[in-house]
Amino acid sequence: xxxxxxxxxxxxxxxxxxxxxxxxxxxxxGDVTVAVQWSTINYKDALALSDRAPIxxxxxxxxxxxxxxxxxxxxxxxxxxxxxxLVIGWELSQPHNxxxxxxxxxxxxxxxxxxxxxxTREAMAIGTAGYTAMLCVLALEHGGLTPDRxxxxxxxxxxxxxxxxxxxxxxxxxxxxxxxxxISETAYLTSLGAAEILDRAELSAPGKSIAPERWAGAIDxxxxxxxxxxxxxxxxxxxxxxxxxxxxxxLPASVAPFILRNITLAGMDxxxxxxxxxxxxxxxxxxxxxxxxxxxxxxxVALPEVPDQAELQFRNGAMSRFAGIGxxxxxxxxxx
Length: 336
Fold this sequence. Notes:
By secondary structure, the chain is an alpha/beta fold. 26% of the residues lie in helices and 27% in strands. It has helices at residues 43-50, 120-142, 160-171, 186-192, 201-204, 224-232, 256-261, 275-288, 306-311; strands spanning 2-11, 14-23, 32-39, 61-62, 66-74, 84-88, 103-106, 112-113, 152-154, 176-180, 194-199, 215-220, 234-242, 264-267, 299-302, 329-332. It has a 6-stranded parallel sheet, sandwiched between helices. A 5-stranded antiparallel sheet has the order 7-3-5-6-8. A 3-stranded antiparallel sheet has the order 2-1-4, with no helix packed on it.
């Protein structure tokens, strides 16, 4: 049996990606074979496919850090053929083949059942971005934040993490402030539940080490000066969840917000999160996210188009995407 896959290879320092037919035994190590229906085009995928960052740890390799599909064969007692499953993170697109293929073989421990309320397509419209957004929401709740504590700021609001975070937080009764560089998308952000829109320029330049209090907590996918300014304006006892570095990986901040206002900065990792936390996050997504709100952000592209779609991530400050591969198709979301 052969499988179509988008295979990356590097020869004499030059990386290329092309659609190939692979033998089933080349799919990767593991005890469960999944017929992939959908995957996504995340920023990390774009970095890997373009070789802008050393994400892939060996070649040839199939890209994509997440996928959803149907169990085809299983040597594990936990999963049976016909079950709907998803995988996010772990070693996908690093040493292990990812989801840009019609089939992938993975360890059973990586698999999460797709919640009954979601189709596999909806699961990947949520994807890594939505799962990360929920991890951030859980961190805010763990820090004691409730809607009555005050506004919650979401930076990078038009991106995948940001847009889903807004939807979840507003559904939980929070008043959400959305920071974006695309003020033209105000109507979209408002439709997700944002109460107020901030121009990202308010936060992206160097600022004071501590400033007047504005929000009880925040979800930040931007980093650098933006995160520093977010911390400086967080209210006493507030919580900030950091999950991205769109502006930069530096943090030109002060200890002042931490020692004067008792601020908590919580880091979010979506790759190696324990399975128990993953299950809790997807259970909450099934309860608290209206997936219908994502419908207008999703487009589908053919598998051979994935490299070009990934390249769009680097144009005009573009996006954290919802995207997928299913029977040779992919879905992608709006720009951030």
